[in-house]
Design goal:
The protein is mainly beta. It has two helices and 42 strands. It has one domain (about 15-35, about 130-419): Single-stranded right-handed beta-helix, Pectin lyase-like (Pectate Lyase C-like), CATH 2.160.20.10. It has a 13-stranded parallel sheet with strand order 3-5-8-11-14-17-20-25-28-31-34-37-40. The chain starts with 11 loop residues before the first helix and ends with a strand.
Length: about 425
Amino acid sequence: MSAPPRRLVATVASLFWALLAVGCGGGAGSADGVVVPPTPPATGTCSLPSLANPVSVKSTPYNAKGDGVTDDTKAIQKAIDAVAGTGGTVEIPAGTYMVDPIANAGAGIRLGSDMTLSMDSGAILQALPTSTSHYVLMVASGVQKVNILGGTLVGNRFSNSITDTDEDGMGLQLSRSATVFVAGVTTRDFWCDGFYVAEGCTDLAFCQIVADDNRRNGMSITSVDAMTVHDSTFKDSTGMLENGSWVSGSGVDIEPNLGETANNILFSGCTFTSNYATGIIFGPPLAYTGQAFVTNIVIDGNTFQGNGVASGGAGIEVTNTTGNQISNNLVTGNAGDGIYLRNSANNNLVSGNTVSGTLAAPAPGDPGYGILLYLTGGNTVTGNTVSQNSACGIRDADPTRSNTFSSNDFSNNQADMCQ
């Protein structure tokens, strides 16, 4: 039996947060009483693992067709079951493989531990039509030491007879799993989310993934500890109708359920564009205050462009969470707000961002603030370049006036600062 495949990036999440702990006494630092998360260290490039003992799903005895007609669910699953636990590799060559996304206890393909799934760049796994939203095309549940590489997962958003109104229908779901590396995977056209992270996952790394034209969010995160996302794209999430209102539609939504925590998450080098509501939004619902937590989130060196244009939203929105960092991002051409901290988003650091060209959102959205702080306190906003926004460059709507502003550069806003 060969050893499980080694990978460099899979341990990036653990290394990143270990370095923070060493450099900062085991937690976030402080300045003048304000929690200031440290700047994340360089994490290098995404390095793909070696592919040990590859087995093709098209080979005997699996005999997947990849012809866009045949249901290949059983063939692919049979190959995975044979390789799981051995450290080997299941290869999916170029082709279109039809997958029944409810065939295996509400899922299409179920991955095992100690394995790599390597999909050719021309491999497409297409969800067959369903009459229920309760499906996931591919799931890693209760597993560890898994690599998921390449390929495109396509949902049945435009080919189904779904009538229920539940928020379900996922592309790639990770739950109760540890040490999982996902690289080069595209998810598109899913009824709900392209990527879904839940139920206490640990040590996850995503690199060069794409979420495109998914119905709820590109990626939703409800419960994880130690997760990095690098050089990835989240675009064209459209939102969905719920109880008569159009909701969601974010590139990424970090929002724990009751009793859950999303902790130690880094997004770096990613692009968030043309999402219906926000590029990224994070924080627990106000109704779950003290019962669900989002902690130590670092959003560093990303691009947020053209989000919220249809409905009004923000490039980056933070709510009901403390001690996070938003730094060195390009935030441009979003509608409503560029960066929006609201409702007890306290003691966060907003630094080194370039925020420009924020547009006025359709009513009742905001009029185009570069950076808006609403009902928040103790935040540090420093060293940002804020220009050509339709409303104030920075608006501090905190009645306690406990936020700190310094060394921000303003030009061609309606006004530089306002209350």
